[in-house]
Amino acid sequence: MATNKELRIGLIGCGFMGRTHSNGYLRVKNFFPEQQYKPVLKAVCARTESKARAFADQWGYESIETDWKKLIARDDIDAVDICTPNDMHAEIAIAAAEAGKMVLCEKPLARTYEESLGMVNAIEKAGVKNTVWYNYRRLPAVTLAKQIIDSGKLGRIFHYRANFLQDWTINANLPQGGEGLWRMDAAVAGSGVTGDLLSHCIDTALWLNGSITTVSAMTETFVKERVHQLTGNVQPVGIDDACSFMCRFKNGSLGLFESTRYARGHKALYTFEINGENASIRWDLHDLNRLEFFDNADQSVLKGWRSIHVTDGDQPYMNRWWVPGLGIGYEHSFVHQVADFMQSLETGGSCSPTFREALETNQVCQAVLDSAAEGAWKTIH
Amino acid sequence: MATNKELRIGLIGCGFMGRTHSNGYLRVKNFFPEQQYKPVLKAVCARTESKARAFADQWGYESIETDWKKLIARDDIDAVDICTPNDMHAEIAIAAAEAGKMVLCEKPLARTYEESLGMVNAIEKAGVKNTVWYNYRRLPAVTLAKQIIDSGKLGRIFHYRANFLQDWTINANLPQGGEGLWRMDAAVAGSGVTGDLLSHCIDTALWLNGSITTVSAMTETFVKERVHQLTGNVQPVGIDDACSFMCRFKNGSLGLFESTRYARGHKALYTFEINGENASIRWDLHDLNRLEFFDNADQSVLKGWRSIHVTDGDQPYMNRWWVPGLGIGYEHSFVHQVADFMQSLETGGSCSPTFREALETNQVCQAVLDSAAEGAWKTIH
Amino acid sequence: MATNKELRIGLIGCGFMGRTHSNGYLRVKNFFPEQQYKPVLKAVCARTESKARAFADQWGYESIETDWKKLIARDDIDAVDICTPNDMHAEIAIAAAEAGKMVLCEKPLARTYEESLGMVNAIEKAGVKNTVWYNYRRLPAVTLAKQIIDSGKLGRIFHYRANFLQDWTINANLPQGGEGLWRMDAAVAGSGVTGDLLSHCIDTALWLNGSITTVSAMTETFVKERVHQLTGNVQPVGIDDACSFMCRFKNGSLGLFESTRYARGHKALYTFEINGENASIRWDLHDLNRLEFFDNADQSVLKGWRSIHVTDGDQPYMNRWWVPGLGIGYEHSFVHQVADFMQSLETGGSCSPTFREALETNQVCQAVLDSAAEGAWKTIH
Amino acid sequence: MATNKELRIGLIGCGFMGRTHSNGYLRVKNFFPEQQYKPVLKAVCARTESKARAFADQWGYESIETDWKKLIARDDIDAVDICTPNDMHAEIAIAAAEAGKMVLCEKPLARTYEESLGMVNAIEKAGVKNTVWYNYRRLPAVTLAKQIIDSGKLGRIFHYRANFLQDWTINANLPQGGEGLWRMDAAVAGSGVTGDLLSHCIDTALWLNGSITTVSAMTETFVKERVHQLTGNVQPVGIDDACSFMCRFKNGSLGLFESTRYARGHKALYTFEINGENASIRWDLHDLNRLEFFDNADQSVLKGWRSIHVTDGDQPYMNRWWVPGLGIGYEHSFVHQVADFMQSLETGGSCSPTFREALETNQVCQAVLDSAAEGAWKTIH
User: Fold this and answer.
1) CB-based contacts of D242, cutoff 8 Å, min separation 6
2) Averaged over B168-173, what is the pLDDT?
């Protein structure tokens, strides 16, 4: 750790997630000014030098690297932030941990449960601070949902359901793999919507509703062949375009999950709902400042779903921003995670989800994919 | 009054409102079976015999008339229901009252305040039962709004606003006047949207929020000339296509009202909202089974507008219909008004709004039209 | 068949469904006046004479029976309408068919696929007119969805999902079985939410999206024991309180269905959504006059889900009712089915779903229950 | 102007607006990296040194001032950004202009039309770049509305309506004036909701729908006396708590506007709607990423309001942010205005609204306040 309580960041990967994290590091200084630890954008790494250079210029990184191993080896880096495609997560994270660096890793941990387990073991052996970027937990409405559930207002839980619906891969002429499209290459991504989208739904579900014990899943690849950008050949598509699963939670509730990139009309419709004996909660990423809440304790003739606009100063994180009624956006979830990570350095706690906590999501994903492959229920716990 | 507690109805007018009322009379037997008084469809009157005959066949009226004076003169009619264009309301109502008949009159009472006042005087002199068909009061969600307000939950009232937005007369080729279009003929209708649509908004407002003391209004006729169906000539349009007004209520709150037939995209969007110190209420005719309610007494971080689906047995009128969650429609407001009228015969009370109560709406309408004509505030009380 | 084109109805069962059907028969005369065949409420049958008498008085049935076999034997009955609990459907339907009566049967056909198959065979052997009351098909918005799909606007279908969420049995003190609660007695109902609620979702899905080929299901009974109203004893609950299933349709699309009576805050939230290559459709029973539609052919920056208020005269069935913007309710779906049945007498066609068509829903329900019991995928076709 | 195309900013005022502007300056570098001009946070000015110091530390300003005249006199300042209470706008802006500085001024220009006119004259005489922070124009959905209107899709305009509803001053114990509450002190703010909230509505309306010619307004102060923070005395409240007005636009359309801080349940509900012959548009600040659009050219049975989620790369400003479906927030409107101001330096154009353009909003506000005071229609043009 640097003196002055700087946290010197080395970012690996300059894609979409590299941008969201960089923005998070830059803004936390303005909106969480009282924190002792301040992120410093020390270095960014990309294979292509020009790309690294442009990114560093845009975001204010002090230096660049083109070999991630060199970045990890640098003494002036306290924490490594992994924003590469999924197939590089494990190798980098393990190396970074072994080098004694803190590790902040994009989700999902890795392509398979096995690969993810290796990362967790390495991190825990090294004893370094770590977190996984399941950012949606830190949207104020989602955090408020967690607080309501923890308060016990819902009573016994009966149902949990979540969807993540997109429509961006319907066009059969969209190529697979390569620049900007590695999420469609099974070798790189590990899976399709399961690792990319359902992992978010599962992370939130485990956080809000506890462990999943058994699953039965179904997957489909609607477009069977696509041109691969790297080879130029038409190749079989290896990822799951859509995945649904039913499950049971440890607390006795039933779960139902669905994700697809073929739901025409939905861009990023992540929704979840939880039904308890005494109250229910719903949320929708397309209207992310709002939480819907039904309280059965309300007066009989006046019961109804409340549309809570989560923009008041006494609601999670919102004392940092503007005034009541003025919404924030997607990117703020990353600012909040950076802030919570910085806070964890100060308090000595952990910044959830840790690698260990995130591993359970990979475990569920693995069971889901196995169940779909075998056409049978799979037991997790 | 007939023995057997029959209420023998004579209906004058076979248009849209004739249908809604007839349906109301027919259904009340099935859904309010315990009531002592039962409507009997004794006679229907229309100028054209074939039209009266077809209507009688369709709705089960026992006989027809082509001269409303004959209908009123019949001994076997207890109550006269006036569904004619507005220009006939006064003459018929006054004659019916003088003949000792109960009178149920379509809204608005008449074309002007003066004309309406004559009707009220005649009705009160005759001492006959009467009601005016401001049907929206009896949609369950609107009645629930009244109950909430009467309970005092809102505290001091600050604001009342209402809109009634339609788009059916935008086409400049739509003719005016005559069959199906008398609402566009100022001589027949008295006014345009003010008497037709704003009168509904005003009736609800007076019921929910008390008297209006002063108004400032603005009207516009967007299409200045239209072919008149009866003359075949292009003639100036005399009605107001749109009307807005600001007002003050006796209770100190401010009002804002708007109505138009030129709001592209809205078919019959009647909405109102009332803001009180402690709570607020909103309603929308396009989603008529729902009432929105905000209660400032809710726990701070969980405050939000509640969407109350008014379909439970303990909500107004809903014990008569189906099971929770299954909505009713526009027409049910008329069934409820018939039921309440029948009940008033049994209990000896009145069925609001009476002619006297409805007169206040005409008074406000008159002040609104006068204000718009003069470009000045008008005082009512 | 009676002369005068009367259709003389004998109704068996005076519960909730007896009311909705009776209302349908009564109203069709007013709103479909041009039809040749007119329903006549000839007789109603209930085990308890006083109950049958009260129902006949309320709805205008000419006579009563307390033994359904006598009703079926009457010469003055053309059509038998079965509104009994599910365990009586088969016996009555088969006897009615054998007596040459037309049969209109409440859904689902029977408790099991086997039992339902017997009914279909009997009906087809007798060659009598028949229909099953899957009423939701005839809500205007749902019929419009069918028309859009049939027009080919959606292109290749990827996803179908439907939910039917209620919350009325959460209270563990609610007894099971007996008067008003036979839906909670497995011996009478055959199953819980699967036959009661999912059957509606499945009927609509088969109609809109074609046959289902394979299913994997999960059921749960949250409250394991309840007092039985008839015995007074605490007894095991045999029904499914909740049921979810995944499936594949013949057209290659994926399905996801869920039903429960434990979703706090939802009274009767039947929703469905279908995602096609070019367009998508959504619907929600709590806002039944509305259909949501996304058309990918809309101009790029202006694409969005359209909220279609299905109340215009050129939309299905709506030329029968009021004027644009004025909604109808749940009960109208039954009026429409009666009208379509009457029309089928005139045209010689069938009134869907026929017993044969409805059998497929029972087949899917059976596969769902079997799958849940066995924890394995089941193949239907 | 500095070499290197720096734009050296001097910010005066450290309140809520100081924060939103500072954030705008800081972020534009990351999200508009190709721009030649880059804002540099040179100095911030506040009367209290410790406050200025803390603000400078939090936002990265290089230096501080406690006397705004010194800030204006500095050679290393290119542009002065005025975030003070309204009563200081004119003096500072005029002095800054005379000193040859560019001026970016918070809205409204000043307390009165007269005062504002003086600012415009000074700015134009000095010939310096200028803009007024009517930030809502640059929310992507609002900019999209402008583009739709400019494309002519709406045809002849009939109606424009806008509301800005808040509820934060209902509590009668809230003091007036002083730190954080200058908006409630008429001497400082000039007016209440008219200058604060209606000015936003008017700015958008003038931009989207052209000039307003006549107005009739009504204002109210619900709580007549409040403790003043600075004097400690109970004093009369001079501001308007609520203001409504009707108006006519030059294009022949009718306008209706309302603003209040007494609408319980609404935090910052700025909504507008515009109805044209062929299409209509609606927007709502509480759901700021969405635009509602009704196109009468859609196929008859499929017409409906479209809910456009304005988060695609081809929609205004959204190519700068994330991926489709992921919303942005309130603060982004300021980032966009900074970016457009920087762009105007590069292109030589102006950044709307200029002082001259913003003056028209003050003119309307003045007419509104005069109309309310006099109880008469006021003519503007």
Assistant:
1) B158, B159, B254, D193, D219, D220, D222, D258, D259, D260, D261, D262
2) 96
Strand partners, D333: none
Tens digit of each residue's pLDDT (9 = 90 or more) over D313-370: 999 999 999 999 999 999 999 999 999 999 999 999 999 999 999 999 999 999 999 9
- Burial zone of C276 (CB within 10 Å; 0-12 exposed, 13-18 middle, 19+ buried): buried
Taking CA–CA distances from C155, the nearest residue in chain A reads: A264
Q: Across residues C193-215, what is the average pLDDT?
A: 98
What pLDDT was estimated at residue C180?
87
CATH number of C139-379: 3.30.360.10
Residue B81 pairs with which residues in a beta bridge?
A: B11, B104
Supply the pTM of this predicted model: 0.97
B340 C-beta neighbours (distance < 10 Å), count: 19
For chain D, the average pLDDT equals: 97
Distances (CA, A) of C342 to B34, C9, C77, C80: 31, 12, 15, 14
- Give domain limits for chain C: 3-135, 139-379
Domain D136-379 -> CATH class: alpha beta
Residues 6+ apart with CB under 8 A from D27: A23, A27, D335, D338
Chain A contact present for B212, CB below 8 A: no
With CA atoms as reference, the chain B residue closest to D295 would be B265
What is the per-residue pLDDT for B1? 40
Residues of chain A with pLDDT under 50: 1-3
User: Tens of pLDDT along B194-230?
Assistant: 999 999 999 999 999 999 999 999 999 999 999 999 9
- CB-CB contact of D342 with D7 (8 Å): yes
- Domain A3-135 sits in CATH 1.20.120.80: no
CA dihedral B346, B352, B356, B357 (to 10 degrees): 160
Query: Using an 8 Å Cβ cutoff, are A353 and A116 in contact?
Result: no
Q: Give the Cα separation of A228 and A236 in Å (integer).
A: 9
CA distance A65 to A50: 11
Asked if A305's CB is within 8 angstroms of B306's CB, the reply is yes
- Report the distance separating Cα A113 and Cα C33, nearest Å: 67
**Which is nearest to C93 in space by CA: C129, C62, C122, C135?**
C122
CATH of domain A137-379: 3.30.360.10
What is the distance in angstroms between the Cα of D229 and the nearest Cα belonging to chain B? 24
- Local structure of residue B75 (DSSP, 8 states): T
CB contact under 8 A, D308 and C306: no
CB–CB contact C293 D307 (8 Å): no
Q: Where are the alpha helices (DSSP H) in D163-290?
A: 186-189, 193, 199-209
Question: Is some CB atom of chain A closer than 8 A to the CB atom of C171?
Answer: no
Asked if D306 lies within 8 A of C308 by C-beta distance, the reply is no
pLDDT in tens, D291-301: 999 999 999 99
What angle, 0 to 180 degrees and rounded to 10, lies between the N-to-C axes of helices A199-209 and A140-150? 30
At residue A4, the pLDDT reads 66
Judged by DSSP in three states, D325 sits in coil
Distance between B241 CA and the closest CA of chain C, angstroms: 18
CA D345 to chain centroid, in Å, comes to 21
Contacts of C374 (CB under 8 A, 6+ apart): none
Alpha helices (runs of H) in chain A, residue ranges in sequence order: 16-31, 49-59, 68-73, 89-98, 113-126, 140-150, 186-189, 193, 199-209, 332-347, 355-374
Please say if the pLDDT value at position B4 is more than 80.
no
Question: Residue C2 pLDDT more than 70?
Answer: no
- Per-residue pLDDT band for D178 (boundaries 50, 70, 90) equals confident
> B216 in contact with D at a CB cutoff of 8 Å?
yes
